[in-house]
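Q: Convert this sequence to structure tokens.
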Amino acid sequence: MVSAIKVYDPTNAYNNAIRKIEQNGIRATKQRRILAKLIFDKGTRHISADNLIDEVKKENRKISMATIYNTLKQFTAIGILREIVVDQNKSLYCNNKQSHYHLYIEDEGKIVDIPTQNIDLNIPSMPACLQLHNIDVIVRIRTLKDKKN
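A:
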């Protein structure tokens, strides 16, 4: 029997996000609903707070940068987003819930998903009192610069 491939459904992703927000005792305010719609309506992707504020402005909405940062942190804390810290001053947020890693193209500030089967990790065994919670892998690459001697 062949299993069906999961296709990203923006409406379902948005509804699941709102449900999870409410299940975690967070009010699904108008601002949170707008941000969830922007984050989940365009398929799986990586977004920064700056990208999100630009999208808010394009829709002629008024949401402060502080609200955007707070909402991204809340969504990360309840597990509907993954924060990818690319450097000490920059985080991107991933709405892809499938198990995967990331390729960061430094010169472009762009992130690309890498399926877990493409990375071979040798994880040491954990002491009985510990449990593996998550593995984050970010492979960083740069464009080669022409060397003229």
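The radius of gyration is 18 Å.
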